[in-house]
Design a protein that fits this description.
Layout (H helix, E strand, L loop, with lengths): L1 E3 L2 E3 L5 E6 L4 H11 L7 E5 L9 H15 L4 E4 L13 H13 L5 E5 L5 H9 L3 E8 L6 H13 L4 E7 L3 H17 L5 E6 L4 H5 L8 E5 L9 E2 H11 L6 H6 L2
Parallel strand pairs: 3-4, 3-10, 4-5, 5-6, 6-7, 7-8, 8-9, 10-11
Antiparallel strand pairs: 1-2
Helix pairs in contact: 1-2, 3-4, 5-6
């Protein structure tokens, strides 16, 4: 279990993460103000790779500070997804390194998403030294690897000492969906203390977002009007489905009443 502000990852129902993908500061803050009103959203991810002024560190930190003020005590994930893993960040490694470290040093983000590459190992250590948690992630928006490779990727994120291990792959068939879910469940069964997030992306993979808890994931991603990956389900719908599967959740009756 990992407690981040008022949210306990690895405890109870899988938590819902919603992304902010706007390009301008005003749009980012407007999205945040809308999302923060929704009590069924547990964490917010700022996909900073979409930000139009991403290389302007002063502007970036200003926006991060304003975002933190809007979110209050809601946990915030800072993410720069590179084009190589399906994102918008297409700059040199030094920029990726410096911007992620600046976000950690600001103490404004609670979690930094870092792609699990050998050259990022020192970056993960430096981010954690600032008191910030790390999601060690791997994304492939084109295909799903063999189950052994998925498990290997999760183990590598663990070897990098990431606090949360994330693997997301595109489902091009029902077999891809089953490969991801079975590999995730196998890893979880053998590593019960590890916090993982696994996702089968695309329409064929949607069920992996609903059955995330059964395959070991401590959290999943959903959308509020705007999605950051194929197959994201509207957050309120996903929360109701998760609550339906776990009627022990204290908010279950509330979601039932809102159907």
């Amino acid at each position: 279990m990992l407690k981040i502000r008022d949210i306990e990852l690895g405890q109870g129902m899988a938590k819902i993460i919603v992304p902010i993908t706007a390009k301008s500061q005003d749009e980012i803050l407007n999205q945040a103000q809308e999302i923060i009103k929704l009590d069924y959203v547990d964490l917010i991810e700022w996909r900073a790779d979409f930000y139009g002024d991403i290389l302007n560190r002063k502007k970036l930190l200003e926006t991060l500070k304003l975002l933190r003020e809007v979110l209050g005590n809601k946990p915030l994930i800072f993410t720069l997804r590179t084009t190589g893993e399906g994102g918008e960040f297409n700059y040199i490694f030094k920029d990726y390194y410096d911007l992620n470290l600046s976000a950690a040093e600001s103490k404004l983000a609670d979690i930094i998403d870092v792609e699990v590459l050998d050259l990022n190992l020192d970056l993960i250590k430096l981010i954690q030294a600032q008191g910030c948690y790390v999601i060690g992630s791997k994304h492939d928006f084109n295909s799903t690897p063999e189950p052994e490779e998925i498990i290997k990727i999760l183990h590598k994120a663990k070897e990098f000492k990431a606090d949360i291990l994330k693997a997301a792959f595109m489902a091009n068939s029902e077999d891809d969906l089953l490969i991801l879910m079975n590999a995730s469940a196998k890893y979880h069964a053998e590593n019960l203390n590890d916090l993982i997030i696994t996702i089968s992306m695309g329409d064929l993979g949607k069920i992996s977002r609903v059955l995330c808890h059964d395959t070991g994931s401590c959290a999943t991603f959903a959308a509020v009007k705007v999605s950051s990956a194929p197959g994201q389900i509207e957050a309120i719908s996903l929360k109701r489905m998760l609550a339906e599967l776990d009627k022990s959740d204290k908010k279950y009756k509330e979601y039932e009443a809102n159907k």
